[in-house]
């Protein structure tokens, strides 16, 4: 009994070795750049990380097909390198000696790519499935349309220009009125009332207080007193 069990395990191991090898049918190569992604916080790739990877692939297969019975043991890894690259295949849970078609594995990986990346704190660029195209997230659309933003900016510039012209015109008008008032006050201060008498400029006569001629005043003082 024991001999038969060992023989079965040996046959299965050989079959698995044939199923999982570089460029094998339905096999996929994975390249991981942990140091590039996390820098000083990079973790070591060990047996625990390999187990997590198998679990995530099994999860993706089961989620892709609700009737799938894929187990962690159905995910085979081979040719693991220190720079963290390896090949993997998914075996058929019902037969365990054949692999799941690559198209199904690819569809399952693409469907759950974000969940797999999150499990390893990586992205499509640092966790690469070389034969599976990246699933780029849809571009984020701004809540406000671009044309509305441009229209708002242009409208603000127009309003600012109108306000500037109005304020500038008011200031210029005030300045002009002030200069005109100052000019009128200055003319009033320096204005001298001058009249012409036979072409000769004479001071205006103050009718109320009168004006005394100095020549006649002197004659009155000389002849009037007795």
UniProtKB/TrEMBL annotation:
Transmembrane segments: 146-170
Signal peptide: 1-17
Pfam family for this entry, one: Collectrin
GO cellular component, one term: plasma membrane
Record flagged with keyword Transmembrane helix: yes
Main location (coarse class): membrane
GO biological processes: positive regulation of amino acid transport
Chain ranges of the Collectrin-like domain: 24-226
Membrane topology, record value: Single-pass type I membrane protein
Subcellular location(s) of the protein: Cell membrane
Keywords assigned: Cell membrane, Glycoprotein, Membrane, Phosphoprotein, Signal, Transmembrane, Transmembrane helix
Name assigned to this protein: TMM27 protein
